[in-house]
Automatic annotation (TrEMBL):
Residues 103-123 are annotated as: Disordered. The keyword Transmembrane applies. Keywords: Membrane, Transmembrane, Transmembrane helix. InterPro entries: Uncharacterised_PrgI. This is PrgI family protein. The chain crosses the membrane at residues 12-34, 40-60.
């Protein structure tokens, strides 16, 4: 229900229709521009490859974001503000078992030091 878009032209939303027309325009323009230089097979593949990104911009949605918003988020997260995430494992059970032993060792060291009186010389 949230993803409802109204069909405007030929069963496409306005966004999809505009980008489809743009993709067709790029393909036709490229065809007439490069026709004297390439054969028909090579030229047809070039038209498809040049028009595909424009067509994709109109139809692709990823996690509710349009294609250009997703591209901006990706550039921002990967290029502008990259972070190195470091994983440090914490073993809660190991800490619970070793912590009382550490406390006992520290108390034992304190007791040995405190037995010596301040005024007596060491021999």
């Amino acid at each position: 229900m949230r993803e409802y878009t109204e069909s405007m032209f030929f069963g496409l939303s306005l966004r999809q229709f505009v980008f489809s027309v743009l993709a067709c325009g790029v393909a036709v323009g490229l065809y007439f521009l490069l026709k004297p230089y390439f054969g028909i097979e090579t030229l047809s593949w070039m038209c498809i490859l040049e028009a595909a990104p424009f067509a994709a911009l109109g139809f692709i949605r990823y996690h509710g974001m349009s294609a250009e918003k997703f591209i901006w988020v990706w550039i921002k997260s990967e290029l502008l503000m990259p972070k190195e995430v470091v994983f440090k494992a914490e073993n809660m059970y190991y800490e619970m078992l070793t912590h009382p032993m550490k406390v006992k060792k520290e108390k034992g060291k304190r007791r040995k030091k405190s037995k010596r009186k301040k005024g007596t010389p060491e021999c």
